[in-house]
């Protein structure tokens, strides 16, 4: 590759990239690079097509909505907050509203953005966004045919304990639940304002004052 085609990434230089594997959800890139010390090397990058989104759903009894499912990659059962993938071109909040409704039948009138995260930044570019949802109404779930889900309402303190004792290991769930807990310790006790600096989230295609 000529110098004109080289790509700088901080102290790294990428000389060539090829797609080693690809499906509709991920691609694996094989890069030929110069390392920060100038020596030649390779770097494998897992590229994610979708944004990961999750939501801490709190009802008026201070219970958290958890979704349980078997995770194929781990061959283990996993309790998590409602999560899903948001495709390019779909607003993150609209995607999370859709995923919450499909997985659990729950709609929320109030949404706050809790955090933006990178989930495994040494080997992947997967990014995530987390919300807090309150002001709930219950409808009918429409899960994907590939999903076998169990839905459970858990007292917030118990859900927090699950993130500390290893019963919840999913990264988005741990970050989301503990973010709310830390904000409460900081004095933001109102669930609708449970994080310092949180941004009120408005669906791109819906009335923010009505449940979806």
Broad structural category: alpha+beta
pLDDT < 50 stretches: 189-198, 205-212
Average predicted confidence as pLDDT: 89
The tally of structural domains comes to 2
What would you say the CATH architecture of the largest domain is? Answer: Alpha-Beta Complex
Described by the principal axes of the CA atoms, the overall outline is elongated
> CATH fold name of the largest domain, please?
Nucleoside Triphosphate Pyrophosphohydrolase
Distance from first to last alpha carbon: 51 Å
C-alpha Rg (nearest Å): 20 Å
Q: Main beta sheet, described?
A: 5 strands, mixed
> Helical content, roughly?
10-25%
Spatial order of the strands forming the largest sheet:
8-5-10-9-12
The share of residues in extended strands comes to 35-45%
List the secondary-structure elements in sequence, H or E.
Answer: EEEEEEEEHEEEHHE
**CATH superfamily membership of the largest domain:** Nucleoside Triphosphate Pyrophosphohydrolase
Q: How many strands appear in the DSSP assignment?
A: 12
Assembly context of the chains:
single chain
Using brief descriptors, characterize the structure shown.
5-stranded mixed β-sheet; elongated; 212 residues; 2 domains; 3 helices; alpha+beta; Nucleoside Triphosphate Pyrophosphohydrolase
What features would you describe in this structure?
Helix 2 (156-165) crosses helix 3. The protein is elongated and about 60 Å long. Helix content is 18%, strand content 42%. The protein has 3 helices and 12 strands; from the N terminus they run E-E-E-E-E-E-E-E-H-E-E-E-H-H-E. The protein folds into 2 domains: 3-48, no CATH class; 51-197, Alpha-Beta Complex (Nucleoside Triphosphate Pyrophosphohydrolase). The strands form 3 sheets. Strands 8-5-10-9-12 form a 5-stranded mixed beta sheet, with helices on both faces. It has a 4-stranded antiparallel beta sheet with strand order 1-2-3-4, with no helix packed on it. Strands 7-6-11 form a 3-stranded antiparallel beta sheet.
């Amino acid at each position: 590759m000529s110098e004109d085609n080289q790509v700088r990434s901080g102290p790294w230089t990428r000389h060539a990239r090829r797609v080693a594997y690809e499906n509709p959800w991920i691609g694996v890139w094989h890069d030929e690079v110069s390392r920060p010390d100038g020596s030649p090397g390779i770097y494998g990058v897992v590229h994610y097509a979708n944004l990961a989104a999750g939501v801490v759903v709190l009802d008026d009894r201070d219970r958290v909505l958890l979704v349980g499912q078997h995770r194929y990659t781990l061959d283990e059962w996993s309790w998590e907050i409602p999560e899903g993938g948001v495709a390019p071109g779909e607003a993150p909040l609209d995607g999370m509203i859709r995923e919450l409704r499909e997985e659990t039948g729950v709609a929320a009138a109030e949404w706050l953005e809790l955090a933006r995260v990178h989930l495994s930044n040494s080997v992947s570019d997967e990014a995530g966004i987390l919300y807090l949802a309150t002001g709930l109404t219950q409808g009918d779930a429409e899960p994907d045919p590939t999903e076998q889900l169990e839905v459970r309402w858990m007292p917030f303190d118990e859900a927090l304990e699950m993130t500390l004792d290893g019963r919840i290991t999913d990264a988005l769930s741990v970050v989301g639940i503990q973010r709310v807990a830390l904000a409460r310790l900081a004095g933001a006790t109102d669930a609708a304002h449970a994080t310092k600096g949180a941004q009120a989230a408005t669906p791109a295609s819906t009335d923010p004052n009505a449940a979806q």
